[in-house]
Amino acid sequence: MSGLRSYLAGKAAEDSVVARYAEEGYRVLCRRWRGPGGEIDLVLSKGDVVIFVEVKSAPSWAEAATRLSRRQIARLMTSAEAGLGFFLRGSLTEMRFDVALVDRAGRIDVLPNALMAA
């Protein structure tokens, strides 16, 4: 039962993050896209920019932030690189990686371009 609970909690966190981005004019291109490196929670766009978003939820933002490992970051980048092939400009597509932290109370902290230095 804990697997179902985790799935539902993750989906609820993603739904909240999608709503937050939608309020700011972003468009959802895909949810839970699977690439060769693994799953990317959200793929969004605003103008010509593609945004890959990793959603992390936990009792606190600090705990959520610790749930993103270097190995997972590398897998996200591998999948995103493959995903760029679906866009007209391919690897020349302007993009960024955001991390959205969601705490137990449902508060969201979006870290734009969070993986820039990873």
From TrEMBL:
Name any one GO molecular function.
Answer: nucleic acid binding
Q: Which InterPro entries match?
A: Restrct_endonuc-II-like, tRNA_endonuc-like_dom_sf, UPF0102_YraN-like
Task: Provide an example Pfam family for this protein.
Answer: UPF0102
The similarity comment for this entry is: Belongs to the UPF0102 family.
Name of the featured protein: UPF0102 protein
Q: Which organism is it from?
A: Roseicyclus marinus
Q: What is the lineage of its organism?
A: Bacteria, Pseudomonadati, Pseudomonadota, Alphaproteobacteria, Rhodobacterales
